[in-house]
Amino acid sequence: MACIWMDGFEIDFADNTAGIWTTITQLNTSTVSYVSTQKRTGSGALRVLSSANTKNGYLSQTLASSYTEVYGGFGLRWDNAQALAEGHGGLGVQLMEVVSSDATPQLSMTLDTATNVLRVYRGRPDSGVLLGSGVTGLTTNVWHYVEFHFVISDTVGVVQLKVNGALDLDLSAQDTNVSASNIKTISIGITEGGGSVSSSKGASADLYFDDFVLNNTTGSVSNSWPNGAGIERLDPNADGSYTQWTSTGGAADSTEVDDVATYGNLPDGNTTKLSHAVVGQRTSVALDATTISGDVLAIMLLSNVMNSAAGADQMAQFVRTSSIDYDQTTFTPSTAYAWQADMMTLNPATGVAWTTAELNNLELGWVVK
Questions:
Q1: For residue range 301-318, what is the model confidence (pLDDT) as tens digits?
Q2: Is the pTM of this model over 0.70?
Q3: Which is nearest to 36 in space by CA: 206, 262, 339, 255?
Q4: Percentage of the chain modeled with pLDDT above 90
Q5: Which of 116, 226, 265, 337 has the fewest CB atoms within 10 Å, i.e. is most exposed?
Q6: For residue 84, is pLDDT > 70?
Q7: In the sheet that 282-287 helps form, which strands lie side by side, from edge to edge?
Q8: d(Cα 131, Cα 154) in Å, to the nearest integer?
Q9: Residues 127, 193 contacting (CB under 8 angstroms)
């Protein structure tokens, strides 16, 4: 694996829920939302609208493993961030944070709204150490793509930033380790610690995020800079090679699982669904073609699933490509609907990166285990 997490913020979520992320943190339910306006690519973007009464708002993802080195990137547009620098003694607004396996903040990225440049701190801005500042001013009301490369170490730590593809900060031989020498959780939005909006100063911020990518350094592709990657949701548009599961009222399988095809729609639970209990039975759907050109860096299989009764019933997502099925992680669904995500950097049929043609011809399916 190389790409370990990504989100184009293509699927809306109910108020005060994290969507496909692990957790959401916000003082008011209106702070964090997905919007179809101001998107960088695809159908939507993450908006963090913070004011004197709302403070922090961010999403956090706990990774499957801990890492000492990561590359990542995200689209950033800031339409307003008034008084943030004043409100936090010049610390600006904290955009991102990486946290160790023992829940200790390791590194934080902030936007200094006095100079419009990015900064990186060891720990949090209000209690940590400023490691360095970028040189590129991020103008308002336009999209920028911010990339980062972090190595966690007491002595040979690395902090690199790129803005719109150009190197903006380049630090080596740094102490980037506060505790545990790893990264386990990553947060994006207006995160904790000094860079949160100050209610006492009446600060406000209107920020947009899109196309978040996180890579580790393993594998042959997607093991370094995301290079301004775009992310797009591909929805079911026709039945696939298998139709062995039971649909609601005998409808076409693809129409039972396209709940979020219209941006802003939430999964509809049991209103439309596919279900089955016989081990080995499969169903699959064809997907929309991508509209983004360039190399395919990774795909994420994403399904909203549940088990209708408590028990040990298991299932897996699979892709069908080149007329062969490739089952992904076997898991036991809970009795409440939840998102299951499987990352695939390589096409298992070829052992190399996906091509656009292969992506446009694959099927997404589910199998009872």
A1: 999 999 987 667 899 999
A2: yes
A3: 262
A4: 68
A5: 265
A6: no
A7: 236-243, 282-287, 363-368, 315-321, 324-327
A8: 13
A9: yes
pLDDT at 194: 44
| Structure-token pair, residue 213 | 């990518």
**353-361: long-range contacts (C-beta < 8 A, 24 or more apart)?**
353/220, 353/221, 353/222, 353/295, 353/296, 353/297, 354/296, 354/299, 355/296, 356/290, 356/293, 356/296, 358/296, 358/321, 358/322, 359/234, 359/290, 359/296, 359/299, 360/287, 360/289, 360/290, 361/321
What tokens appear for 255 in the block?
């129409």
The 10s digit of each residue's pLDDT in 247-291 is 987 789 999 999 887 777 888 888 999 999 899 999 999 999 999
Distance of CA 244 to the CA centre of its chain: 32
Question: Considering only CA atoms, which of 21, 144, 173, 5 is closest in space to residue 77?
Answer: 144
| Identity of the residue numbered 312 | A
Residue pLDDT, tens place only, 4-62:
999 999 987 776 678 899 998 876 655 888 899 899 999 999 998 876 545 678 899 99
Domains 3-215 and 236-368 share a fold: yes
Residues 157 and 90 sit within 8 Å (Cβ to Cβ): no
Domain 3-215 has CATH 2.60.120.200: yes
Give the residue extent of every domain in the chain.
3-215, 236-368
CA distance 27 to 16: 9
